C-alpha cells in the first residue's frame, strides 16, 4: 500500500506542485494528471520521481487510467479563476464539475477511497458580511465557479454515502506563494501585485480596495493536505481553510510596498462582476481536526518567501 502512488490532479499548477515537493521529500511516489492549461511541466521535479499523465479530467478514460492503482487522490485540477468562469461558464464546467464526477466514478470503479478535494470559500458568496464564515453559513454561489465547487461537494458526499469514498473536503480561502502564475489577468491578486511591483508596472485595483480576503501561505496549506492524506478516519463535513484574518487589498498593497521598499502607480477601476466583498474564515473546525503550523506564516514573511527575499 505504501508504495502505491498518490494521484495529484492539477499537480503541475501552483498548489499542486508545492504539495508534490513535500510528498516527494517524504518519499511518496506521485502521479499527476494535468492538461497543462495553467500548470507547467517545469513546476514538477525533473528527476523522474513524478509520473506525469498529460490529460484532461473531463476525459473519463484518462481519469480512470490515472486513478487505477493509486493509494489516494488529491483533486486540485480546475479552472481556478472565478472571473474565467464568469467569462466561460460552459468550458469551466467541464473541468470543474465533470472532472469531479469522472473522478468519483473512477474511484468507485477502481476501489480507491481517500480523496482530498479543493473546494472554495467562493461558495458562501457575500454571506460573510465581514464576519468570519463558519461551515454552516448558507451557501450562495454567485458564479459558475462557485456553483461547480458546491455541486462537486454534493457529488463527493453522494459517493461517500453510496460507495464508501472518503472525501476530505477543504474550502480554501485565498492561497498565495511561490509558483502562483501571475501571467494572466485571471491570476491570483498577490501574484499579480508582487510581479507588477517588482517590475515597476502600474497596478489595477478592481473596486475601492477595501474588499478583504483571508490569505494563507501555500506552505501552511500543504501541511494540512498531507495530514488529510494520512488521517486514519476522515470526519464528515467540509472544513474551512484560512487564518481567520481579514486583509484588505489596500493593506496588502501597503505590505507589498514595505517588503519591496516602494510601489508603482496604483489605479482604482470598476469592481468585477460577482466579486465577493468580504471573505474571512471561521477556522474553529480546522483547528479541531488538523494542526496548522504554529505560528502560521504571516503576510510579510509570506511575501518575502514568495519574492525570494
Ligand atoms: P492552478 O491554475 O495553478 O492549478 C490548477 C491546475 O489544474 C493547473 O495545473 C491546470 O493545468 C490544471 N487543470 C485545469 N483544468 C484541467 C483539466 N480540465 N484537466 C486536467 N488538468 C487541469 O491553480 P491553483 O491555485 O493551484 O488551484 C488548485 C485548486 O485549488 C483548484 O481546484 C482551485 O479551484 C482551488 N482553489 C484555489 C484557491 C487559491 O487561492 N489559489 C482558493 C480556493 C480553491
Ligand atoms: C480566489 C481564487 C479562487 C478561490 C477563491 C476562494 C485565484 C485566481 N482565485 O478567488 O480559486 O476559490 O479565492 O476565496 O486563485 N483584484 C484586483 N486586481 C487584480 C486582480 C484581482 O483588484 O489585478 C481583486 C479582485 O477583484 C478581488 C481580489 O483582488 O476583489 C481577489 O481576487 P483573486 O485573487 O482573483 O481571488 P478571488 O476572486 O478571491
Automatic annotation (TrEMBL):
This is NAD-dependent dehydratase. It comes from Stutzerimonas zhaodongensis. InterPro entries: Epimerase_deHydtase, Lipid_A_modif_metabolic_enz, NAD(P)-bd_dom_sf. Residues 6-242 form the NAD-dependent epimerase/dehydratase domain. It comes from the Bacteria.
Amino acid at each position: 500500500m505504501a508504495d502505491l502512488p498518490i494521484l495529484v490532479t492539477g499537480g503541475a499548477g501552483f498548489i499542486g506542485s508545492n504539495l508534490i515537493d513535500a510528498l516527494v521529500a517524504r518519499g511518496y511516489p506521485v502521479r499527476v494528471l494535468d492538461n497543462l492549461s495553467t500548470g507547467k511541466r517545469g513546476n514538477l521535479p525533473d528527476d523522474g520521481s513524478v509520473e506525469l499523465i498529460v490529460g484532461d479530467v473531463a476525459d473519463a478514460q484518462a481519469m480512470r487510467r490515472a486513478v487505477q492503482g493509486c493509494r489516494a487522490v488529491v483533486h486540485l485540477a480546475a479552472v481556478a479563476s472565478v472571473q474565467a468562469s464568469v467569462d466561460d461558464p460552459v468550458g469551466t464546467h467541464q473541468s470543474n464539475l465533470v472532472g469531479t464526477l469522472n473522478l468519483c466514478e473512477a474511484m468507485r470503479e477502481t476501489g480507491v477511497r481517500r480523496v482530498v478535494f479543493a473546494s472554495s470559500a467562493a461558495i458562501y458568496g457575500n454571506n460573510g458580511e465581514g464576519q468570519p464564515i463558519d461551515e454552516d453559513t448558507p451557501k450562495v454561489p454567485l458564479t459558475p465557479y462557485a456553483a461547480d465547487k458546491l455541486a462537486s461537494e454534493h457529488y463527493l458526499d453522494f459517493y461517500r454515502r453510496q460507495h464508501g469514498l472518503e472525501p476530505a473536503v477543504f474550502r480554501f480561502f485565498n492561497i498565495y506563494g511561490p509558483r502562483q502564475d501571475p501571467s494572466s489577468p485571471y491570476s491570483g491578486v498577490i501574484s499579480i501585485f508582487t510581479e507588477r511591483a517588482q517590475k515597476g508596472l502600474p497596478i489595477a485595483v478592481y473596486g475601492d480596495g477595501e474588499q478583504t480576503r483571508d490569505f494563507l501561505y501555500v506552505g501552511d496549506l500543504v501541511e494540512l493536505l498531507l495530514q488529510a492524506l494520512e488521517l486514519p478516519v476522515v470526519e464528515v463535513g467540509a472544513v474551512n481553510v484560512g487564518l481567520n484574518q481579514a486583509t484588505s487589498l489596500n493593506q496588502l498593497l501597503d505590505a507589498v510596498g514595505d517588503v519591496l521598499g516602494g510601489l508603482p502607480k496604483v489605479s482604482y477601476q470598476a469592481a468585477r462582476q460577482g466579486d465577493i466583498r468580504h471573505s474571512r474564515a471561521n477556522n474553529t473546525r480546522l483547528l479541531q481536526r488538523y494542526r496548522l503550523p504554529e505560528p502560521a506564516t504571516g503576510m510579510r514573511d509570506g511575501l518575502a518567501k514568495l519574492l525570494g527575499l
